[in-house]
Amino acid sequence: MLIINLLHILGISWYQSNSILIPMARIKIIEPEAATGTLKEVYDALIKSRGKIAEVHKIHSLNPEALIDHMALYMTLMFGKSPIKRAIRELMAVVVSKTNACNYCVKHHGEALNFFWKDSAQLDRLIQTEDLSFLDDKEQALCAYAKTLTEEPNSPEIETLLTKLKALGYSDTAIHDATAIIAYFNFVNRMVLGLDVKLEENYGGYKY
Fold this sequence. Notes:
There is one protein chain. The protein has 10 helices and 2 strands, in the order H-E-E-H-H-H-H-H-H-H-H-H. The protein is mainly alpha-helical. The protein folds into 2 domains: about 80 residues, no CATH class; about 110 residues, AhpD-like. The longest helix is centred in the last third of the chain and has 23 residues. About 5% of the residues have low confidence.
């Protein structure tokens, strides 16, 4: 316990597994209790706006300005004005993260999605199978676009998928917002996977 407390005082984040101390990421992370200056202000603002601080926030702790810009983009894309409903934005987050095998983001945004769905069985079906028949045509088309743009962004199929989205009633603004959300989660997935950000023990409880 003394070693763990010392690590936290030094601003280094670890978790314990089978009596072994394992770092929460591949780079140093500054914990809230060790934060000062701009980073402390950003952490305090995150707690106020989101309810608490996630490891994906802490991964930017060595560059607080990057965290500020990251969160500004996140809040705009996921909570800002858009023709795309909040639940659908979280659906895209899960589809992209599942495609990239980013368990951290699947867990976090699956939790957020189920805040709207309130159907754990349906969420499990989304995450564990490729069967999207329980979604409506517009949602299935958007999921197909998210998956293809993630797997093969230069695919000739992209044009066909966009044509289908427009035929289903998606406006150019909605398509822009969807594409930005898909691109954003590809960025976040790569931050998480590249720096091996570990999933928190309690990854729910945010303000959705």
